[in-house]
Amino acid sequence: MFNSTEDEDIVNGEATDAYFLRTEDALDHAGKNPHVVADVSADQFTGNSHEVLAGVNDASKLLAEATDDLDVWTLPEGSLFSGGPVMRIEGNYRDFARYETSLLGFLSHASGIATNAYEVTKEAREFDDLSVLSFGARHVNPKLAPVVERGALIAGFDGFSHVSAGRKLGREASGTTPHALVIAFGSQEDAWNAFNDSAPEDTNRVVIADTFTDEADEALRAARELGDDLDGVRIDTTGSRRGDFQHIIKEVRWKLNQEGFNDIGIYVSGGLDPDDVRQLGGIVDGVGVGGYVSNADPVDFSLDIVRRDGEAVTKRGKLPGVKTVYREDGEHVVETADACDAGLFESVVENGEVQKNYSIEEANNNLQNDIETLEQ
């Protein structure tokens, strides 16, 4: 029905670039199917900036579907990396050639999202009890929403807004109220009361407070109208009317406190990025970050054969031979290795069978451990 690739096409290897099918034809015609080791990597040499690995479960499932003969190792999902391979594949090349396009897509997009989400949570860690929510699903194809929300959770976000993604991930979506609700009623008070009366008892009462009038005015009116039922207000002022957003939030807080509404939380959203989190994190209770995460540039992974029939080989500009990845003195280290030396790599596919799936919690723990190791 919708203009998006079907799962069946991905599994069958038809979600691929045409030249891989021509490669298959040429190998078949010549009766060749070399045994290879291939690296998936973004940069050949290590550097100072780190990215977050994500999308491993989908990549592993795909390669397990390819053949019964592949072995795959990967850095643990959630790992920080700064060059060198993140995944190693060993098997007959003809058996997985056509899957390269989808494999890299699974890893590249998810890792870019998780990396940008990590840039947000790095700033949020500086503030106690600051809630961070993902609001970016509206910026991507609906089929990608679980990828966005999963990447945000791996990076340490506290929640997300997309209902279907929540079902897919086994988590419940959360959110406040939109401007559309207030506009539909034509009255802020009527909209706030309708939400308060209709929402389940365990739903936090956080209302939008900048639809028709000044942010401080609407925040105070909401507090007076809903009283003890109100948990917080969300400020999502359009950029063209925002001015000094930090000043606006401080004014809202001051006026709420002045009337005794000290316990009402202030939540902000609307085009926020890590710089905004750094500036606002100390004066708000939560931030909703959307496009900065969902619109992240994919990590530019490539797949390169680095050994063919036991011989180290690759294309010009890449590093031949099997490699190992490990940590030493707070550094991400990549070196040549024997095939048996896994280093940080974990087996995820063996003889075409998936050996491991990473939970969101495990991936987040991997990231937290790497933060302690690598962020000196």
Helix content: 25-40%
Overall number of domains: 2
Mean pLDDT: 95
CATH secondary-structure class of the largest domain: Alpha Beta
So what's the overall shape?
elongated
* Low-confidence runs of at least 5 consecutive residues: none
Observed structural traits:
2 domains, seven-stranded antiparallel beta sheet, 376 residues, alpha/beta, TIM Barrel, nicotinate phosphoribosyltransferase, 13 helices
Describe the protein's topology.
Layout: H1 7-11, H2 18-30, E1 35-41, E2 51-52, H3 56-66, E3 71-74, E4 80-81, E5 85-92, H4 100-124, E6 131-134, H5 145-154, E7 159-160, H6 163-169, H7 179-185, H8 188-198, E8 206-208, H9 215-226, E9 232-235, H10 245-258, E10 265-269, H11 274-280, E11 286-289, H12 291-294, E12 302-308, E13 311-312, E14 323-328, E15 331-336, E16 346-350, E17 353-354, H13 360-374
Describe the structure.
There is one protein chain. This protein has 376 residues and is of the alpha/beta class. It has two domains: 7-113 and 297-374, nicotinate phosphoribosyltransferase; 125-294, TIM Barrel (Alpha-Beta Barrel). The protein has 13 helices and 17 strands. The protein has helices spanning 7-11, 18-30, 56-66, 100-124, 145-154, 163-169, 179-185, 188-198, 215-226, 245-258, 274-280, 291-294, 360-374, and strands spanning 35-41, 51-52, 71-74, 80-81, 85-92, 131-134, 159-160, 206-208, 232-235, 265-269, 286-289, 302-308, 311-312, 323-328, 331-336, 346-350, 353-354. The chain has a seven-stranded antiparallel β-sheet with strand order 13-12-1-5-3-16-17, covered by helices on one side. Strands 7-6-11-10-9-8 form a six-stranded parallel β-sheet. Strands 2-4 form a two-stranded antiparallel ribbon. Strand 12 and strand 13 form a beta hairpin. Helix 4 crosses helix 5 (145-154). The longest helix has 25 residues, at 100-124. The chain is elongated. It starts with 6 loop residues before the first helix and ends with a helix.
